[in-house]
């Protein structure tokens, strides 16, 4: 962990208390609803909202009451209305758009709000999405962006829609740098004292530096672990630079959950190793051997190893999982290793089924394919294992066997698998891998790959909306805590980013650039 010296701790505490007092005053002294919401939005944008959860909750409770009362500012001012909608995840009338066509900031806020959709029949939001997208593009092309908004912010929002692909740490850094350069811009009639803006920026800078230092320490730890479990000796293993995994993990899990984040990265690397063994390097004997070892788990010595590659992969999974299981048992107050072992076995069996299809030239139906493909995507060993380390106890054990948890897992799997299949279609069909390429050609009424892809996109969008509905619904009856639900949604966001284009996140060069910005590069302030 990263530790601050006494002076830094006092300075950080003073700034937190100053901002907290501003939030308190905003409840009683600031009349503008916009000002209160803007302050909450700013704290979220620069990555320090976690310090003010109670104060923010009170402001949002107030905003929701005004919404129900149809407060004039809330309903008639488009930017306030859209900001409240996005934060509160509610609905707003079409009439608010009149009179704001030249206000880029208001249009951008409305565009972001239109991305918050949890039902299939929200046609008004579909229209607002199309309209604001086109208007923002026109303003970019004609250089008519309002001075209160940076063109880069509009470009980023259009490329990475707000509730589907935004990666928070990267956005926090951009916002800190932008606010530091231009000040925290609010309407002239709104209230935000200059010294409060300075305290917010100073606190955000300190928070970013602390997080970046922590990521570097974690990076060193994972690098040592890769060598200890000998993953670096697997010649067949496709592996991205570790920086990229920390870039993605920093958005999947908040900075304070170091153990869960490291486990997420470790299992991403381990599932890649297992997948490459099944997909690229392993013989039929090796694949059957690995499954038998997973079946025996602690009694694996009864089986033995048919190759050095199998031995390396198994022990990397087995030893790492047992260590994670020991830490998770302390959090959950019960043993979870049998569940972790079962997840690895289920994943390997699904990968084996796909390997058999490929070897036999079998073209599965969609009904055959999806139950296998959802599991073979290998989120099983990644997401549930990290959940066990997050803090909330998933008790009783029936929670992880229940319908709410199962729905969250299924919908996340569907989104990630279909996004992956669309991105990898060209490469895998060219390699003769029937199972994945047939997915795009086996859909009802699809006469071309493009039509099949469009149908899959609709399926992904519908699954994302259903997933978000499960995530934000309070008291779902399944006992899954909200922080755990958020991990499923964050996985879906990362998948949207990773498979944004056919070759992944725009390009490896851009992904490395984003990773460096979060993990290594200093703030430009």
Descriptive report:
This protein is mainly α and 525 residues long. The protein folds into two domains: 6-207, Terpene synthase, N-terminal domain (Glycosyltransferase, Alpha/alpha barrel); 229-519, Farnesyl Diphosphate Synthase, CATH 1.10.600. Helix content is 69%, strand content 0%. It is built from 23 helices and no strands. Helix 13 (258-281) runs antiparallel to helix 15 and helix 13 runs parallel beside helix 16 (337-360). The two termini are 25 Å apart.
Helix and strand arrangement:
Blueprint: H1 6-28, H2 33-45, H3 53-68, H4 72-76, H5 78-88, H6 104-114, H7 123-141, H8 151-159, H9 162-165, H10 168-182, H11 194-228, H12 242-252, H13 258-281, H14 284-296, H15 308-332, H16 337-360, H17 366-376, H18 383-388, H19 403-430, H20 434-441, H21 449-472, H22 482-498, H23 508-519
